[in-house]
User: Fold this.
Amino acid sequence: MHILPRLIIILFFIIFSGCNIYKPVDARKVSPTGTERAKKNIEEGRSVGVFGIATGKGRGGSFEFATTNELWRASLDVIDFMPLTSVNYSGGVIITDWYSEQGNTNESIKITIKFLSNEVRSDSLDVDVFYKTCIATSNCKINKQEGQLKKEITKQILAKAAIYKKQVKD
Assistant:
């Protein structure tokens, strides 16, 4: 009876030994420093760091590459005064935390920016603005509004993204 589990394990290794899960790399062709490997991966489009900005520091110095997605850069610049709750580059969403001006604890806003495309166009973004009004600490009302603030944020993001795109071309 003890032979069956051993036989299954041996068959597992025999069957999956040719799947190329592990690919050995020639050490003469790959740099031993993490900085140089990260730089090469970024140049080849294989890596993106936090907020679309890849940075690295190592024995060989430091480097920084800004994302080529102008909408992301512009969005982060426009809402830089607000604390962020979630930023997911691969999911295409930025969510801020509730924000209120000093001295006004009864009203706050939260902004959600969804990226529908990487192109700098007005239909590439979906900006939602949520307003929270509180009578007491536990008695709050939250509304999603299509007001002037939504239009202004979208306009500012697109204007900055257009500037960033022009800078890349020049």
Q: What stands out?
A: The domain at 70-169 is CATH 3.30.530 (Alpha-D-Glucose-1,6-Bisphosphate; Chain A, domain 4).
